[in-house]
């Protein structure tokens, strides 16, 4: 049955189109999932299944048909092995004798290592296999436990930290290779390793249809051959490699080559002999290599050639450098050449080119660590050149061009450098084979010349062009001097001026790549004059007016980089005013062109030239006139003006200090009239450039804009904050503005005073922040100043609650470009300054990646509550909670910033500070313990604040002492108890909110403090609570009853006698309020009576309380009181009179329900009192009181009085 289930775990997915509408149809995927669950349950929950499963299901790992089920098998094996390992400890082992497929630890290891090579196959099998390997390590080899305990978690972490989109298989394979090498090194036993190698060879049949897995097996086998010294094994393993490789599959061909290469690192001559034997293709060797066919043109034979040629490449790469130079020409190159010359197949050519690259890289001095003259280099270069030349007129159908170019790149990097003629020859052939390739050849001629329509032509073209640029880069950096750069660009020049737009574009791509590569490579070089700059600029500048936009951009970028290089290497020698006149003439010729893109490139250079030449007295008039050009109706002209404007401001902006405001106003006047988007973007950039020189003036101009801001001012702010340094200075300036009063109350023109008017400058700064924090680049700046920005914005929000926008005079409206039209501007929908401030806070939090804070506040409606004067403290507290949860590291900084504001004369400053401090004290987050003492002291210090809201918040915060640890509770308990008591007596608390917080806080504190801390004030608390029982607000009554019930915790202490007096004194109101109109009061009374019941020393009464007074249970009040009075009479006869007298005081209660309850209680109490005990109560007074109630205004009271009197038939 188990094997049947396992086989179902390996069923393939349903073929496309097999889905059916039948609801009873079970797909293969569903079946597989069910069986995997069954296996998991059998492994983890069914008793005695361990003996059935372990170790038998190990055989499933070496069953080719069960390869898709490796994940569930390993998952079960991991659980089983874990239990075995726990039970057996160091004796944990596997009895391979009972297994059919897994006959040794080596065979198990061989299979597992191959399976982790492709970890995402088989439903993420790598993860489960690695977990199993970690558990089973001691059973494979005792030496592996420590190593695998260290290495395997790292591999698991790599798998968990990546997904299919960013997966790098090569990096993973390198890690697996290192893991295998470490494993073999740790075992370090020749005999064991040989058995492991033989196990690998024996498992070749498992991968007949799994080329990727076979590739991994080949790599591992190569590592084993590299490790062992047994020549017989190496020869046999090499034979097995060639016998089991499908040479028509690229992956297996490469795997074979890699394996042979690894082997060559320690057995070079053995490998070379083996390859030569294969190369001879002799009939006499058919006994050893029977898989080689001896007849010309056999496809399999050609594929074998391709494999062997590639093997030589990897052999060269891995061969010991000490002897490589003696083997490279003979036999390696000789054998490779013989193979290549005897074949015309494409795959042989591809392998040849890959091998040439590998050989060239292997003989490079960086690899050999010695100088080596590679005599065959020119011959190999001619070979690659011939292949490229043959491809020039052929369509792009394979990677042969990119392989040839990569091989040539490695060859030209060798010594000595090519002569100019050789260089020209190879470059012309290389670019000629690539530049003329069409962009969409397959779309135009998909069926010509046997081209496969499924070929990814786009990707193939990209890789080919990249290979060409890489070749040119290698050629350039071989002789890193300006003369070489010039010579290569001169060779490319014929393609720069080609009639074919594609050729020009690709050539400019190559040019830009070369210039950038040179710039990067020469960054740390010593000074060298850029003696070819004029030539290079003369080549590139014409491309600025190219018909193709892309070419123009590439040309400009190339010029830009070239100039940057020139400025770096000869700072003192190069400046535009020393540029030869021919360059200036060229710019003048190009600037008459009407094409905008052409103007953009040349006018930027022109701007630099002008900035060098322009006298100071002409600078501002020139710029002011140029500002008018921003509105030019021709886009190319306006764009050119913006480029020159920015260029000159960058170079000379510091010199126009006195005219900065005028220039700013002029540009702002034009923003609304600019039609060209590129021009507008350039105009906005002028503010950034001016800000780099005169930030204060720019800010003063922008902050004078009426609010809400218009779209142009918004875009200016967004542009300014793109520069981190500028943004940081802006933030500092705004924080300084916020530190002053953000409100103003000037008289209006009609003489009326206007209260709560937002001051203009702070409000303009808030509006600016709201827009700036929409720019992603503000993230780092926001995080750097998080505490100050957060606190300041929160204080502004509090100040803006109820505030209105400032009023602007008609003169200022006329003079400002930012005046809003409420009919047209969507921002005019902002109804209040506080909403703008809240939006600024939201955008700030989103910008610094605190989306969770924003979403929590939004979902709970706290942002809306912030706009309401009576609710914003609660919203601030919620924000504080979110800060504690999401960014606790900012809490100490916020506290430091807000501490001085506790003494502020502005109420809202103290309210917001205390609201946050309360949450910082009550929440659980990293570092809170160190903040407890200063926070407690801050709250205690504000208990006498003039604001009731602040006092209430302080009481609320101090009541959260239960959140502290035991030591802190003991330290502060006495002080906080006194504060709570004082809070209950607050006389300036008309809404009783402080009293409510004090009682709630006391209830919380009493559950934590010791009896001796409460002993002296226990009765005082009880006495202060009693008046609260009859307060009009239900929450006050409920809190009072709850608090009294919590006092029961101290009822058995030294104050027991006095406390019991209070219990009996408050028993009547507790019982009467059991039927209160408010459900919270009823619940509180039930809670208290359940706590007080055990103290009354009446088992029957306590039982009634515990049984009937459940929180959510419905209470039949009349029946309960009837039964309870009987218990009272029986257990407390001496208290009957006291209870009756106490109850009579409630006959005049302000609550109708309590009056009725008191009447009922008295009726039941007197009615159940036996005749002999009737003298215990003042029956005349009670009866008189009940008779009076028969005339009460309320019919309910009259009915209850009549019912009560009906019970007194024995009186």
TrEMBL record:
Highest taxon listed in the record's lineage: Eukaryota
UniProt KW keywords: Repeat
Cited InterPro entries: ARM-like, ARM-type_fold, HEAT_Maestro, HEAT_MROH2B-like, HEAT_type_2, Maestro-like_HEAT, Maestro_heat-like_prot
Residues of the Maestro-like HEAT-repeats domain: 503-730
Domain MROH2B-like HEAT-repeats: start-end pairs: 4-477
GO cellular component annotations of the record: cytoplasm
Repeat region (HEAT), residues: 1182-1211
Listed PROSITE patterns: HEAT_REPEAT (PS50077)
Maestro/Maestro-like HEAT-repeats domain residues: 935-1208
Record protein name field: HEAT repeat-containing protein 7A
Organism for this UniProt entry: Stegodyphus mimosarum (African social velvet spider)
């Amino acid at each position: 049955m188990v094997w049947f289930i396992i086989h179902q775990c390996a069923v393939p997915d349903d073929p496309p189109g097999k889905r059916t509408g039948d609801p009873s149809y079970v797909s293969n995927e569903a079946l597989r999932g069910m069986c995997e669950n069954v296996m998991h349950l059998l492994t983890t929950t069914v008793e005695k299944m361990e003996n059935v499963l372990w170790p038998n299901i190990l055989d499933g790992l070496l069953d080719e048909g069960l390869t898709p089920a490796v994940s569930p098998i390993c998952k079960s094996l991991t659980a089983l092995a874990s239990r075995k390992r726990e039970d057996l400890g160091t004796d944990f082992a596997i009895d391979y004798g009972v297994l059919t497929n897994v006959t040794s630890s080596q065979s198990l290891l061989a299979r597992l290592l191959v399976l982790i090579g492709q970890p995402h196959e088989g439903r993420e099998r790598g993860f489960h296999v690695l977990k199993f390997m970690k558990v089973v390590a001691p059973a494979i080899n005792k030496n592996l436990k420590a190593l695998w305990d260290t290495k395997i978690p790292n591999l698991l972490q790599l798998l968990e930290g990546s997904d299919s989109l960013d997966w790098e298989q090569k990096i993973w394979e390198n890690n697996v290779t290192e893991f295998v090498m470490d494993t073999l090194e740790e075992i370090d036993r020749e005999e064991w390793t040989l058995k492991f190698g033989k196990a690998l060879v024996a498992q070749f049949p498992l991968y007949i249809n799994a080329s990727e897995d076979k590739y991994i097996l080949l790599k591992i086998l190569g590592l084993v051959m590299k490790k062992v010294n047994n020549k017989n094994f190496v020869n046999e393993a090499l034979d097995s490699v060639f016998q089991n490789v499908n040479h028509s599959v690229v992956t297996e061909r490469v795997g074979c080559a890699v394996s042979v290469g690894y082997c060559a690192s320690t057995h070079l001559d053995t490998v070379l002999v083996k390859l030569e034997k294969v190369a001879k293709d002799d009939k006499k060797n058919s006994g050893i290599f029977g898989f080689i066919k001896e007849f010309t043109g056999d496809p399999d034979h050609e594929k074998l050639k391709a494999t062997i040629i590639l093997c030589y490449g990897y052999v060269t790469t891995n061969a010991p450098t000490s002897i490589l130079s003696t083997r490279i020409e003979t036999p390696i190159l000789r054998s490779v050449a013989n193979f290549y010359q005897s074949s015309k197949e494409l795959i042989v050519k591809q392998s040849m080119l890959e091998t040439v690259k590998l050989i060239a890289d292997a003989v490079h001095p960086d690899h050999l660590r010695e100088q080596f003259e590679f005599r065959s280099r020119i011959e190999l270069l001619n070979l690659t050149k011939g292949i490229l030349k043959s491809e020039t007129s052929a369509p792009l159908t394979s990677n042969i061009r990119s392989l040839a170019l990569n091989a040539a790149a490695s060859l030209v990097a060798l010594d000595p450098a090519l002569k100019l003629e050789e260089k020209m020859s190879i470059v012309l052939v290389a670019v000629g084979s690539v530049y003329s390739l069409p962009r969409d050849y397959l779309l135009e001629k998909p069926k010509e010349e046997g081209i496969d329509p499924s070929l990814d032509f786009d990707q193939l073209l990209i890789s080919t062009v990249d290979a060409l640029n890489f070749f040119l880069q290698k050629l350039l950096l071989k002789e890193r001097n300006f003369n070489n750069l010039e010579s290569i660009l001169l060779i490319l020049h014929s393609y720069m001026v080609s009639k074919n737009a594609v050729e020009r574009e690709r050539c400019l791509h190559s040019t830009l790549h070369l210039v950038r590569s040179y710039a990067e490579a020469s960054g740390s070089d010593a000074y060298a004059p850029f003696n070819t700059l004029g030539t290079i600029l003369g080549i590139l500048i014409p491309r600025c007016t190219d018909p193709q936009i892309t070419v123009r951009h590439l040309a400009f970028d190339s010029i830009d980089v070239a100039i940057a290089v020139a400025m770096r290497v000869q700072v003192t020698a190069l400046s535009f005013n020393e540029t030869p006149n021919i360059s200036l003439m060229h710019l003048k010729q190009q600037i008459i062109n009407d094409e905008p893109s052409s103007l953009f490139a040349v006018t930027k250079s022109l701007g630099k030239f002008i900035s060098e030449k322009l006298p100071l007295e002409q600078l501002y008039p020139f710029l002011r006139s140029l500002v008018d050009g921003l509105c030019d109706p021709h886009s190319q002209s306006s764009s050119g003006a913006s480029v020159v404007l920015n260029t000159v401001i960058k170079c000379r902006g510091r010199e126009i200090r006195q005219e900065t405001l005028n220039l700013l106003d002029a540009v702002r006047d034009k923003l609304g009239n600019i039609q060209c988007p590129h021009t507008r973007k350039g105009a906005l950039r002028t503010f950034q450039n001016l800000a780099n020189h005169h930030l204060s003036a720019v800010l003063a101009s922008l902050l004078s804009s009426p609010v809400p801001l218009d779209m142009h001012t918004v875009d200016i702010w967004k542009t300014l904050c793109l520069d981190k340094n500028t943004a940081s200075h802006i933030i500092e300036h705004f924080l300084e503005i916020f530190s002053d009063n953000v409100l103003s109350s000037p008289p209006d023109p009609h003489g009326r005073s206007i209260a709560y008017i937002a001051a203009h400058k702070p409000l303009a700064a808030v509006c600016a922040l709201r827009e700036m924090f929409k720019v992603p680049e503000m993230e780092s700046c926001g995080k750097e100043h998080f505490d100050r920005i957060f606190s300041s914005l929160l204080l502004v929000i509090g100040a803006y609650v109820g505030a209105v926008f400032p009023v602007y005079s008609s003169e200022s409206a006329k003079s400002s470009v930012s005046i809003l039209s409420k009919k047209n501007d969507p921002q005019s929908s902002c109804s209040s300054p506080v909403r703008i401030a809240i939006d600024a806070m939201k955008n700030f939090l989103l910008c610094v990646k605190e989306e969770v804070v924003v979403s929590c506040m939004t979902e709970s409606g706290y942002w809306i509550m912030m706009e309401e004067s009576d609710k914003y403290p609660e919203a601030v507290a919620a924000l504080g909670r979110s800060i504690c949860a999401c960014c606790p590291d900012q809490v100490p900084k916020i506290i430091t910033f807000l501490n001085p504001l506790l003494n502020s004369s502005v109420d809202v400053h103290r309210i917001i500070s205390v609201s946050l401090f309360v949450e910082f004290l009550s929440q659980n987050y990293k570092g809170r313990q160190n903040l407890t003492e200063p926070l407690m002291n801050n709250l205690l210090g504000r208990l006498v604040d003039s604001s009731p809201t602040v006092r209430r918040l302080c009481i609320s915060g101090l009541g959260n002492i239960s959140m502290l640890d035991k030591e802190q509770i003991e330290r502060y308990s006495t002080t906080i108890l006194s504060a709570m008591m004082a809070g209950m007596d607050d006389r300036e608390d008309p809404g009783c909110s402080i009293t409510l917080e004090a009682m709630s806080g006391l209830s919380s504190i009493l559950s934590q403090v010791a009896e001796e801390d409460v002993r002296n004030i226990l009765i005082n608390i009880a006495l202060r609570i009693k008046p609260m029982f009859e307060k009009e607000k239900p929450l006050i009554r409920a809190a009072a009853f709850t608090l009294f019930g919590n006092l029961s915790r101290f009822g058995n202490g030294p104050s027991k006698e006095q406390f019991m007096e209070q219990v009996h004194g408050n028993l009547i109101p507790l019982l009467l309020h059991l039927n209160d109109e408010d459900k919270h009061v009823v619940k509180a009374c039930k809670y208290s009576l359940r706590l007080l019941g055990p103290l009354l020393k009446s088992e029957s009464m306590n039982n009634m309380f515990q049984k009937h007074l459940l929180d959510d249970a419905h209470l039949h009040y009349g029946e309960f009181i009837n039964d309870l009075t009987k218990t009272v009479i029986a257990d407390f006869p001496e208290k009957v009179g006291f209870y009756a007298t106490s109850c009579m005081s409630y006959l005049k209660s302000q609550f109708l329900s309590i009056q009725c309850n008191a009447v009922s209680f008295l009726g039941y109490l007197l009615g159940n009192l036996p005749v002999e005990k009737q003298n215990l109560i003042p029956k005349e007074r009670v009866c008189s009181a009940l008779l009076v109630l028969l005339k009460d205004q309320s019919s309910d009271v009259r009915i209850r009085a009549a019912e009560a009197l009906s019970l007194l038939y024995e009186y």
